[in-house]
Every structure is written in C-alpha cells, then in structure tokens.
C-alpha cells in the first residue's frame, strides 16, 4: 500500500463518502471523474487487473440532486499528502480538494473526514458552482457548505458582480452573510488609481442564491465617487429572477401632472403569481394609488389592474380606472368537449381619463373601452359561444366619435366540416344578438337580430393551379323595439352568393443582378355574383366598408359585419410574381397588381352612401423586397387611373445591419384625409467617428464607452407638425447605463403630454430614475435592450 506520509510530486487520491480511498482500493467507477495521467501517478495498476472503463453520462447537470450529492466521492491532491484512513488528511503545497461542483485550492489544507470539515490557509480559492471566493483563511464543512472565510474576495457567477469583505459566514450552500462588504459589477482596469464607477458599501450583505436576492444593511451606493443613495436596508437581485421588495423609486417631469415620484413594491407571491403596487405622488394632482396582480395556472390565467386618485386637483374630482382580464378552460369528461370562460372588463371614471393618464396602460387609454364576458364550448366540428359586450365611450367635444352598440346577449353557433362527400367543404354559422344603446344612435331603434350564414365549396388544386367554386347563403331577421322609418316592426332578407376563385402558378429559373432565383408568375381570377336584395332602409348595427387592399379585394362582400350584403357582378383580376431562393425557399421579392371589373352597379350601400357605378375599380399595386436580410421594403398603392394619382399609399422600409442598428421609415397617404411620415431608429453614435464597437451578440451591448441615439417621430404633413415624438440618448459605460428621453404624445386635437425621463441603470444591481426603458420599448420598432440576460450562465463556463 502506498505510504500516505511520503511525498509525491503530484499525488492524487479519491475519498468516498465513507472512507478515504487509498491507492490500492480505488474504485474503478470513480475513474471517470479524474484524468488517466493522475490515476497512473496515484496508483500503479497491477497487470492482471482489468482497465477501468468510463461510464457515459446523459448530460452535465447544472444542479446536483441531494441524493446524488451524498454519494459523490471527494478527490484530493497536492505536493505532499499525509493522514490516517477514515480520519483526517493533510495536504501541503498546491493542495486541492474536489467534490461535485465544489473545488477548493490552498497552500495548506486539512480535511477531517468524520466531520467533513476542511481548514485551508494561504492563497485559498474556492469555486462553488461557478461562484468564486478567495482569501487567506477558510474553515468550511464541504457538503453542508457551512463555515467562514476571513478577508475574502468574491465573484458571483450569475451577474459577474464582485467585491471584498472582512469576513463571510456561510450558512449553507445557498446562503451567506458578508461582513463589511463591497459590491459592484464594474470590472477592474489597469492602473493603481482605478476606482469603480459605482460601488455599494454595506455593513452586511446577505446573499441568497436560491432566491437570487441580496439584502444589504447599512448600505450606501456611490456613483463616480459621490454617495447618491444612502439606505438603512435594501434588497437587490443577483440575476434577472423575480424578487419581493421595494423597487427603486422612479421620478419624472410631466407638463400635465408635474413632478411624479413612484415608489413601487413588488410581491413575488409564487412562481406563477405576483403583484405590484405603485403609489405615485403627482405635484399638480395628488397621490395616485395603483396596483397590478397576475396569475398563471394550468387551466386559467389573468391580469388585474386598478388605480384610484382621490380628489384630483387638476379636474377637482376623484379619478379611477380598472382593467380585468381572465381566461379559463374547464375540463369536462371525455367526449363532451371543452368549455372556455373569458372576461375582459375595462372602465374609467370620466371622459378625460385617456388624455390625463396616457401612460397608465393601453387597455385604459383608448377612447373605446370594452366590457366583455363569454362562455365558449367546442367539440369536433361544432362550437358555441355566449357573449355579452358593453362599451364605455370617452368623448372629446372637439373630435366626437360614434359609440358602438352593446351586445347582450350574443349567441353564436358554428359547424364546419372539410372533406365531406368527395372533397366538399361546408360551414354554417347562426347568430342571435340583442343590440342596444342608451337613447338612439343615428335614429336607429334597438333591436334583436338573427342571421344564418352557410357556405359550400369544392376546392380542386394541383402544384400548378387551383379552382374553388363556392356557394353562400346569408339570411337574417330583425325585431325592432320601435318601428323603423318605413313603419315596419320587423324585417327579413335572404341573399345568395356564388363565386369562383381560380389561379395558375408558373415557375422558371432566373438570374437577377448575378443571383439565381426561382421566379413564379401567378395569375388569378375571382368572379362573384350576388343578386340585389334591397337592404338600404334597414338599420346598420355592425357593418362597415372594407379597406381596399390585397386582403379584401379577393372577398365576396364589400362590407364587414352582417347588416349589408353587397350586390355584386364583378371579376377581380390579379397577377403576382415572386423571387424565391432556390435553396431555402426564402422570398427575396414579391410584386403584385390587381383590379376589379364591375359589370353592374352596386346598389346596396351604407346609410348615407351612394351606389357604385364605376366599371373599373382603382388599381392596387403592391411590392415587398427583402433582397438581403438587412433591408426590407413594403409598399401598397391604390391608384385611380381617371384622376391619374394615388388615392391611398403606404410605403415602409427597414434597414437593420446588425444588433442595435435599426432604422425604420414609413409614409402613409390617405387622399383628402391624412398624410404622415413615421421614422424610428436605434443607432450607435460612435459609428459617426469610425468606432464600430464589438459584436458581442444581442443583450450584451457593443462594448463600454458607447453612445446610442434612439427615437421615433410621427409627422403630419397635412398639419405641418409633429404628432408624437420620442427622442433620447443612451450611454453604455460597461457596468452602468444612462438614458435621457424626451417624450411628446398627442392627447387630443389641441393638447399633448410632454415628459422628460432620466434613468441610471447599475448593471446587476438596480435602476434609478424614471422608466425611460419602458417608453423606448413601447414606441421604437425593434428596439433592443443594451443589456438583457439571454440565457442563465452555466457553472461550467467558470469551471476550474
């Protein structure tokens, strides 16, 4: 047997959980955890003994389960090893101890196997699952990870934060208390005079790796050498994981509300439940009490929001708003089907809420607020929905809107079947709705409407062509609360429709600008015939004219909803060509044109509308070009050949050559109504002086010391003014980010809300200031966070 008291150049041994495994008793199945060269030095193999074999592992696990950890062997090595089997081991010179995800190195190491206690001194370094501690003296129970470390330096794996302290007391493998500690994520630079841009000093810091939260007491946060946030106690994240506690206060300057100060509190109730309370002090209004609760269960989920502002000094009244969203699925016995419950209710205190609280959330800052509840059922080809919808309309005297009808109740039944009787496809829908509104709307009475819509089609298609004939029948009946203008108390109408959709697909190999493509040529013809049925005297509860675009030009009805079925005798002709990559099938370009040929006047109109007598419709031109991944251009033009000009045009493009570089622009024209330009961007300003930065990938920035310009502008060419504007600067210092954003959002024809947002983000720690980051995310297309943890760091990325 090898003499444990003798010196070896680099002796290495393995300790089982029960006893020290000396050279002659080394278990073969432990060899997979150590290099073959070390094994040879530790124990010469007898010639007759079979060579140990490696046992494959299905995966390298980030966590080590407790039952497995109890069975893990302990490996030690060093220049000199001596001790007694099953009792203690003493290692001097390049001492090392390994067990699972724990690696301990020191000049001198004493290990008591009975108590699983290690005492290390001299250049001590311990790596625990990627988190590293270094210092002069360590006393630790290895498996329990209980003990202390004197004068340590430490670096955490999750966020690369580090610091030093007088002492660390390890409570267990997840929790520790750091005495007289510092904490920062600013990485050291060369030079004796270097100081971190920001640093947290605290009398004690409690670290909890299980909840990934740090708690500091007697803390002071210093920035650029100046203390900016002295707090007696605070908590901060060690990763992007959620945690309960007071969040950093946010403040801003608003031309309507004045100075705003918000002190949020986040409650991490459970992994699938949380709540946030954010009281806000507004210098011109008072105190707004707001909160949000979220929950996510296997069969239901929801979000509840509410705010109350007692005695708003701006409007001299109490202000409030709430939003409730709940979705649930009910499990029923097999064969019965499934039932869904949905609730979406949004209500506010007054008509001015949308303009005064323009940033309270999209659901409450629109002028039409829905209140809806529904029960749905489905089984196979059948489905049924019972729904009630009531609206709250926020009126503006300078720009009034027509409120929609409430629907309570609305009962909908559907049946849909494909491959029926030799390829037939059929569907039928029945709807019964009660339409009501306070008073009268457009002189129309409240009513009950029942309609049935049925269709049968038979598609034929092959690789180079398709033909789809279709027959539809739309029948509806009204019962009015009061007689309509014609004196009728009820009315019925039945409208049949026949259509034929057909197209061809030709392909050829082509080359453009030195690039090979598969080019298609796709002519399409769509004919529809609907006889005239007089409907113009009937009320209109939910119908509106379709936009004229490539999606609606191939439909049978010119109106949406069910109160108007247009009489049609028309043919739509279109031609599309596409350029496809022959290897991947990706579309590099698409060009299309379409026009309707009308053989007979359309006499069915909306209230106040005129019949359509034009035999040739406007021409639609469309193009989409994505020649290279960096460039994307889309455009649609509605051209009137008689007037010789476009009636509606939309042209948009985006250039994005890499991370944090995107410019998007759009031009929108509605002749006689609006003409707007929209520009959004995120771009490094350092590019202007030739500093292209580093390609570190999404969520990692492009290196420190870089400026970024961000913004979005919406300009009305008709009014010659900026409608909405969000313009800002971001600075990446490596361990902190600075943002300043100027925001102007339109809140009516003559009113706009303006804010100045300033934010400091100390990476791996906290954010201070106003919520500029949320404003950038909401307003700038394809905005990328400069720092966003894409994936959790692996312990093997910092493995010794």
From TrEMBL:
GO cellular component term, pick one: transporter complex
Ranges of residues in domain LptD C-terminal: 318-689
Main subcellular location of this protein, as a coarse class: membrane
Residue ranges of the region described as Disordered: 37-71
Intracellular or extracellular location(s): Cell outer membrane
HAMAP family: LPS_assembly_LptD (MF_01411)
Annotated coiled-coil segments of the chain: none
Keywords tagged on the record: Cell outer membrane, Membrane, Signal
Record text on subunit structure and interactions: Component of the lipopolysaccharide transport and assembly complex. Interacts with LptE and LptA.
Family note: Belongs to the LptD family.
Protein species of origin: Caenimonas sedimenti
Record flagged with keyword Membrane: yes
InterPro entries: Autotransporte_beta_dom_sf (IPR036709), LipoPS_assembly_LptD (IPR020889), LptD (IPR050218), LptD_2 (IPR045659), LptD_C (IPR007543)
Leader sequence segment: 1-33
Pfam families: LptD, LptD_2
Functional summary from the UniProt entry: Together with LptE, is involved in the assembly of lipopolysaccharide (LPS) at the surface of the outer membrane.
LPS-assembly protein LptD central domain ranges (all copies): 219-306
Gene this protein is translated from: lptD
Gene Ontology terms describing biological process: Gram-negative-bacterium-type cell outer membrane assembly; lipopolysaccharide transport
Entry protein name: LPS-assembly protein LptD
Keyword Transcription: no
């Amino acid at each position: 047997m090898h003499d444990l008291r003798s010196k070896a150049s680099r002796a290495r041994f393995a300790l089982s959980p029960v006893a020290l495994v000396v050279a002659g008793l080394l278990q073969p199945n432990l060899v997979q955890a150590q290099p073959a060269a070390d094994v040879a030095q530790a124990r010469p193999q007898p010639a007759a003994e079979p060579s140990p074999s490696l046992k494959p592992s299905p995966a390298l696990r980030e966590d080590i389960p407790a039952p497995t950890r109890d069975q893990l062997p302990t490996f030690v090595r060093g220049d000199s090893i001596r001790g007694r089997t099953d009792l203690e081991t003493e290692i001097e010179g390049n001492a090392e101890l390994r067990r699972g995800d724990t690696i301990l190195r020191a000049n001198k190491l004493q290990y008591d196997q009975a108590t699983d206690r290690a005492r290390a001194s001299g250049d001590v370094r311990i790596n625990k699952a990627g988190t590293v501690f270094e210092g002069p003296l360590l006393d630790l129970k290895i498996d329990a990870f209980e003990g202390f470390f004197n004068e340590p330096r430490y670096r955490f794996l999750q966020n690369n934060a580090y610091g030093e302290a007088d002492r660390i007391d390890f409570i267990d493998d997840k929790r520790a208390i750091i005495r007289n500690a510092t904490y920062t994520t600013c990485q050291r630079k060369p030079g004796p005079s270097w100081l971190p841009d920001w640093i947290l000093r605290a009398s004690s810091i409690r670290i909890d790796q299980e909840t990934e939260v740090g708690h500091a007491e007697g803390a002071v946060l210093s920035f650029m050498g100046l203390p900016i946030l002295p707090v007696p106690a605070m908590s901060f994240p060690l990763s992007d994981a959620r945690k309960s506690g007071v969040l950093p206060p946010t403040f801003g300057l608003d031309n309507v509300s004045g100075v705003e100060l918000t002190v949020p509190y986040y409650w991490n109730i459970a992994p699938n439940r949380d709540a946030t309370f954010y009281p806000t002090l507004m210098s011109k209004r008072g105190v707004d009490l707001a909160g949000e609760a979220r929950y996510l269960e296997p069969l239901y989920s929801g979000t509840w929001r509410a705010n109350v502002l007692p005695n708003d000094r701006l409007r001299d009244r109490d202000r409030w708003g709430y939003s409730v969203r709940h979705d649930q699925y009910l499990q029923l016995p097999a064969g019965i089907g499934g039932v869904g419950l949905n609730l979406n209710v949004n209500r506010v205190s007054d008509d001015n809420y949308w303009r005064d609280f323009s940033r309270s959330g999209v659901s409450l800052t629109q002028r039409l607020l829905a209140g809806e509840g529904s029960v749905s059922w489905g089984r196979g080809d059948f489905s049924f929905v019972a729904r009630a919808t009531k609206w709250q309309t926020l009126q503006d005297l300078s720009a009034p809107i027509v409120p929609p009808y409430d629907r309570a109740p609305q009962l909908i039944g559907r049946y849909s079947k494909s491959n029926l009787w030799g390829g037939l496809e059929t569907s039928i829908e029945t709807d019964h709705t009660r339409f009501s509104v306070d008073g009268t709307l457009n002189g129309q009475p409240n009513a009950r409407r029942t309609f049935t819509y049925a269709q049968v089609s038979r598609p034929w298609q092959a690789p180079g062509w398709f033909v789809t004939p279709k027959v539809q029948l739309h029948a509806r009946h009204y019962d009015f609360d009061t007689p309509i203008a014609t004196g009728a108390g009820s009315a019925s109408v039945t409208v049949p429709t026949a259509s034929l959709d057909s197209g061809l697909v030709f392909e050829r190999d082509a080359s453009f600008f030195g690039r090979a493509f598969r080019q298609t040529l796709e002519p399409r013809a769509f004919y529809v015939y609907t006889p005239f049925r007089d409907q113009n005297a009937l009320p209109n509860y939910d119908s509106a004219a379709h936009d004229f675009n490539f999606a609606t030009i191939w439909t049978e009805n010119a109106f949406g909803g069910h109160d108007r079925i247009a009489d049609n005798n028309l043919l739509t002709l279109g031609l599309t060509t596409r350029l496809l990559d022959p290897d991947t099938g990706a579309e590099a370009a698409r060009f299309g044109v379409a026009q309707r040929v009308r053989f007979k006047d359309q006499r069915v109109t909306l209230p106040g509308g005129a019949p359509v007598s034009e035999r040739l419709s406007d021409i639609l031109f469309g193009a989409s070009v994505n020649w290279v991944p960096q460039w994307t251009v889309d455009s649609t033009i509605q051209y009137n050949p008689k007037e010789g000009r476009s009636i509606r045009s939309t042209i948009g493009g985006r250039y994005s050559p890499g991370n944090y570089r995107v410019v998007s622009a759009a031009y929108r024209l509605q002749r006689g109504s609006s003409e707007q330009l929209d520009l959004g961007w995120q771009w490094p300003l350092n590019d202007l002086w030739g500093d292209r930065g580093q390609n570190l990938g999404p969520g990692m920035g492009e290196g420190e010391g870089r400026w970024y310009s961000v913004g979005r502008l919406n300009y009305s060419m008709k009014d010659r003014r900026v409608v909405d504007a969000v313009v800002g600067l971001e600075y990446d210092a490596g361990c902190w980010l600075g943002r300043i954003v100027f925001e102007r959002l339109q809140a009516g024809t003559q009113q706009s809300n303006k804010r100045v947002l300033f934010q400091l983000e100390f990476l791996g720690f906290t954010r201070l200031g106003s919520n500029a980051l949320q404003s950038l995310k909401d307003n700038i297309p394809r905005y990328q966070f400069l720092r966003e943890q894409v994936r959790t760091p692996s312990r093997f990325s910092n493995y010794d």
